[in-house]
Every structure is written in C-alpha cells, then in structure tokens.
Amino acid sequence: MKKILMLLAALGVVAGTMPAAMADPASDLKQFQAFFKNKFPTVAFDEYSNGLYALPGLEEYREQWTISNEFPPYELGLSLGKKLWETPFKNGKNFANCFKNGGKNIAQGYPYWDEGSQKIRTAEMDLMDCAKKNGENFSFLTADLSKEQGPRVQLAQLTAYFYSLSQGQRVKIDVSSPGALKAYEDGKKYWWQRRGQLNFACANCHMDLAGKNFGGNQPLSAALGHTTAWPAQRLEWGRLETIHQRYATCNSQVRAKPFKHGSEIYNHLQLYETYMSSGLPLTAPAMRN
Amino acid sequence: MQKSTNIVITGAATVLLGLGSLLAAPGLQAAGQGLDPKVCKDKDNPPKDTVTQGYCLVIERTKGNCMGCHLIEGMSSGNIAPPMVSIKQRFPEKAKLREQISDATKVNPDTVMPPFGRHNILSADEIDKIVEYVWTL
C-alpha cells in the first residue's frame, strides 16, 4: 500500500473534482444518474447501455455502429468463447456446472462481495477458478494478463460468452455489507482522482467531457452505462478485450502507469462503475469506437 | 473518421475559409500563417524561427497536441475547449498566456487542460515558442 501511495505521489496524482463526502451508495447513485439526466435530457435511460452511441452530437458514429452491428466483428471471438464454455473439461464437467442456473441470467450481479475470501469477485475470477478447480490448465490461468494478449483475449472471449447468457438483464449488485462498502469507497475515490502526466480523472473524460470529441475523431462516452457492454471489441483493437484492459488503456492515455490486469483496485473501480449503472440492461459483447 | 469542423469567425475569415477549402486539398490544411506540417519533419532543415517551432510543438501529439481539444483553423480538431482564435486580442499580456499553458489549474482548478509546465510535458522554452505561435492565431 505504501508503495502504491508513493507511486501515485510520483505520478502527480492529486485530489480531483471529488464532491464533498457523499452519504451512501444509494444517494451517490441518485446523484450520478441525475447528472446525466440533466446533461442529456433527450437520452432515454436504457440508451446508456449503448455507450457513446447514445449521446447527442455523435449520430454519425451511431450510424456506422448500426451498420457494423449487422455483421458484428466480435462474432468470431464470441463463438470461440462459446466453444470454450461448452467443451467438456477432462473430468467431463464444463463451465456451466460451476454456476448457478447454468450461468444464465446471473451476470447482472457481478462483481460481487465474497464474504469467504473478503474480496470483490469478477466474472473473470469465477471463470478462472472454475477451470482451476476442474484441473484444467488454460494459458490464461498462469499468464501475465497485462502483457500477454493471447491468453487475455481468450479469457475475454469466454467472459463475453458468459455475459451474453445474461443479455438484457438489468444491473443489480449488492454493496450493502461492510466489506463491499469499503471496496466501493475505494473505487469511488479512484474514479474522482486526477492522475497521470496529463492530470485527468476518469470523471473528467466520462462526465465533464461526455459527448465531446477528442481530436475530432475520438468521441467520449458517458460513464453511465460503462461496464454494461464489456467484454467489448473496439474497431481499433479488432479483438474482444476485458474491461480491465479498457481501464489500463484509459490510464495510459493520460500517461499514468496502468495497474495490473485483475488488480484489486480495478476490481473496486469496476464495482463502483457497475453500481453507478444500476438498472441498465446488459448488452455485452458490443462494438465500440 | 475525420470530421471537418468549420466555424465562422468574421466576414473576412469566412472568405478566407471559402478560398481555403477550394484551393487546399481536403484533410490537414495549412494552418496559422500558412504553415505545413511537413516543415516539422524536415530533419535536414529544421525550422529556425520561433513561430514555426511553436507550431510544430503544438501539433506534435506527445507535446502540445492542443488541437486535440481546441479548434485550430485548418486542423482536424477536438471540440472540448474554446477555439483558438484572436489570442493576441484576448491575451495582450504574453505572461498570462504562458501561465494558462504552464498551469491552467491555477486559473481554474477544475479545468481539464493539462498543466503543461507544472507536469513537465513542455519545457519553459517550449512553452515560450508555443506562445509565439498561438499569438499569431
């Protein structure tokens, strides 16, 4: 922890536009969603699950996106994920056996607080654990997922398929236990903190600047709806990626050192972002600019 | 995807814009004082005047990249910040302009404009050159 603090100090992280201490997640949520309702009064709530394409002024991007959705480029990756999900392990079981309801209509509850391990757990973690428990040795179980694209993309494909089994389910996560609350506060702090040489908080780009266009060719999404489409594929990437890879990219863009894939702080950030999207339908996997 | 954004500033500027789009190839057009990004890449004959040097720092993505946020006439620009026009009139004091670039958070703590000087994105000398160029806009 001390090391992280020193690192943050070295990177010039300062307290950002954090509003005065907010009371509790439920009122944070109200305030957060009201922010976007005021900013974009014409955008219907459910539309936020469509990322930047929901926003006024970005219609040109939406048109292209709609066309690309006729034959979505992520189909190939998704079918590889499906195959992985369905192929029996050496012991005859499969991924579906590890999950409630065979893995259907449960992704809206991720990430969640696990009392046993006293940690936040993501879908990726549960999928990896399932494979491990069943004696499998996929490369994503041992790889450095921050650096090794192949194994990470395979995990993204599997996770994308897992989320696709819950498409349309509305985000509903529980942050009521003391442990979850602490993780939530941690993620929230990260969200509002400025970082990197360029001195940006997540909130700067995805709240203040949502709907604006960086450099004339990089539109910016609203934070509301973040996480509902992930794992996702970007035109620029040409492959399905995990949300932690997206976070790392956002960190790098402002010349801040990204955290590791699967790191606790990214889990907490994901918890905060997901909670802020409470009530929105899951659309993963999706295409993004 | 390249979005061309044009704004109308004054009557005279409109005429210039019209001519510009007739004469220049689409895409990156000559900006400011008719500068061309090619001059920045010329290793054998690097730009010697401060205005051109400032221009090159402004358009370099890892340096100023000012058009990422500010509309600069003739460049593919973002729409995040006020357009860079009439800078000389609005910043008659170069020191104020230098301050805005060096640490915009001093003027407005909530700004998204990076503190180019304070965070060592640009050196003092580089900021001085940018001031000279931006003053011509």
From TrEMBL, chain A:
Paste the cofactor note: Binds 2 heme groups per subunit.
Q: Which GO terms describe its cellular component?
A: cytochrome complex; periplasmic space
- Enzyme Commission no: 2.8.5.2
GO BP, sorted A to Z:
sulfur oxidation
Where is this chain primarily localised?
A: periplasm
Give the enzyme's main class according to its UniProt record, as a single word: transferase
The organism's place on the tree of life at top rank = Bacteria
Residues bound to heme c 1 are C98, C130
Q: Which residues form the Cytochrome c domain?
A: 81-171
| Residues at which substrate binds | R246
Cofactor dependence: heme
The answer to keyword Transferase applying to this record is yes
Is the Cell membrane keyword given for this protein? no
Could you tell me which SUPFAM superfamilies the record lists for this protein? Answer: Cytochrome c
Active site (catalytic residues): C250
Q: Please list the residues that bind heme c 2.
A: C202, C205, H206, C250
Keywords assigned by UniProt, alphabetized = Electron transport, Heme, Iron, Metal-binding, Periplasm, Signal, Transferase, Transport
- Endpoints of the signal sequence: 1-23
Provide any one GO MF term from the record: oxidoreductase activity, acting on a sulfur group of donors, cytochrome as acceptor
Which reaction(s) does the protein catalyse, per the Swiss-Prot or TrEMBL entry? Answer: L-cysteinyl-[SoxY protein] + thiosulfate + 2 Fe(III)-[cytochrome c] = S-sulfosulfanyl-L-cysteinyl-[SoxY protein] + 2 Fe(II)-[cytochrome c] + 2 H(+); S-sulfanyl-L-cysteinyl-[SoxY protein] + thiosulfate + 2 Fe(III)-[cytochrome c] = S-(2-sulfodisulfanyl)-L-cysteinyl-[SoxY protein] + 2 Fe(II)-[cytochrome c] + 2 H(+)
Kindly list the places in or outside the cell where this protein is found, as annotated in its UniProt entry.
Periplasm
Protein family membership: Belongs to the SoxA family.
What assembly does the database describe for this protein?
Heterodimer of SoxA and SoxX.
What this protein is called in its record is SoxAX cytochrome complex subunit A
